[in-house]
Amino acid sequence: MTRVPFRVVLLLLVAGASTRSAAPPADWPNFRGPDGSGISAETNLPTQWSPSENIAWKTDLPGPGASSPILFSDRIYLTTYTGFRDGQGDAAALKRQLHCLNRADGKIRWSKEIPAKQPEQEKIREGHGYATSTPAADAERVYVFFGKSGVIAFDHDGKQLWQADVGDKINGWGSAASPVLYKNLVIINASVESGALIALDRATGKEIWRAPNIKESWNTPIIAKSADGRTELLVAVFQKVLSFDPDTGKPLWSCATGINWYMAPSLVAADGVVYAIGGRTGGALAVRLGGTDDITATHRLWTASKGSNVTSPVFHEGRLYWMHENNGVAYCADAKTGNILYEERLPRADQVYASPVLADGKIHYITRTGRAFVLAAKPKFELLATNEIEPRGMFNSTPAVADKRIFVRSDRALYCIEKK
């Protein structure tokens, strides 16, 4: 029987569509899902799980990492690192890996290793590690971002196609933003490496445009449309939300946030409005898209004092939901006004670095120790379940949702949670 290349299979699956088009709706092809919102249309998901309940499979990983799993066609992709950890060992031995797993059973199909560009930093704060950026995939390629070691594209059989340099600076917190796919571009927030947004050609890795002055920004940019249909590339930086033309990198507008700290949470957008939370001092705001130059006085709709320094929000039916990274408090805010609708401390909640996902009318929060809180996605606080996976490992990764399953990753293993 003639062997059909994987890329041909993918093209048949998306017959009639361009290879530049978005992945099928059932996939989770990049950080926080198809549109970066953290929302899935999946239903019939499990509400409760434990080591002995609703765990379909578990795959031990060859090394740690904080990147999220992505799902494309019949495969799962995620990254790890080995050879050097938490300042122990020789930094020259540091390597990153991209792993391809079966979507059905979690078995590792292939792994590819990328030596770190030296000199690499000898320690990253709070154990965040060297594999924090989530991959992104389209019908032809998988893209990974490894900080100063660059952006690398592989085909779906694991062949390296190109590697692009986006800067060589380092930071004590490491590098965290994930690739964004738009038309023929891979867009990288290289705030740490070069203080820039950089757009690369998907096929070749050639730089297409570069936007400077991206300061103290660890978040993954998003693509959204203004009320009049203009497409905007949005990113939060120190003291500002910025908008760019994603085709050219031309600045469109800036808006003051009132948050005098670095920005780690990703933005969310809905109905022509972008929402931002962030900063150790806390803060949130809403900005109407579609402006020009400094739009603080004309398009900033509201500001608020509550926020999170790490976790990104989700938007659902006119409300914003998020959880504070340190104090164990879950928030719901009115998206029109910023007014807090509830502010509830969850029982035995520790640090939360993973961003929430919303599916099947429920919001899922995962703590760093693997405790999972399931809340009803409505303006009245309702805790539906508190779940544990197992008391080992560090859970910094944002879950992925597809196939009526929830995929949760720690620095030791990938878990598939499914109702049985």
Topology:
Blueprint: H1 6-13, E1 55-60, E2 70-72, E3 75-82, E4 84-85, E5 88-89, E6 95-102, E7 108-115, E8 136-137, E9 142-145, E10 151-154, E11 160-164, E12 180-182, E13 185-190, H2 191-194, E14 196-201, E15 207-211, E16 222-225, E17 231-237, E18 240-244, E19 251-256, E20 268-270, E21 273-277, E22 284-288, E23 293-294, H3 296-299, E24 300-304, E25 314-316, E26 319-323, E27 329-334, E28 340-345, E29 357-359, E30 362-366, E31 371-376, E32 383-388, E33 400-402, E34 405-409, E35 413-418
Parallel strand pairs: 19-23
Antiparallel strand pairs: 1-35, 2-3, 3-6, 4-5, 6-7, 8-9, 9-10, 10-11, 12-13, 13-14, 14-15, 16-17, 17-18, 18-19, 20-21, 21-22, 22-24, 25-26, 26-27, 27-28, 29-30, 30-31, 31-32, 33-34, 34-35
What would you say this structure looks like, in words?
By secondary structure, the protein is mainly β. It folds into three domains: 44-64 and 346-354 and 356-420, no CATH class; 69-217, Lipocalin, CATH 2.40.128.630; 220-311, Lipocalin (Beta Barrel). It has three helices and 35 strands. It has helices spanning 6-13, 191-194, 296-299; strands at 55-60, 70-72, 75-82, 84-85, 88-89, 95-102, 108-115, 136-137, 142-145, 151-154, 160-164, 180-182, 185-190, 196-201, 207-211, 222-225, 231-237, 240-244, 251-256, 268-270, 273-277, 284-288, 293-294, 300-304, 314-316, 319-323, 329-334, 340-345, 357-359, 362-366, 371-376, 383-388, 400-402, 405-409, 413-418. A five-stranded mixed beta sheet has the order 16-17-18-19-23. A four-stranded antiparallel beta sheet has the order 1-35-34-33, with no helix packed on it.
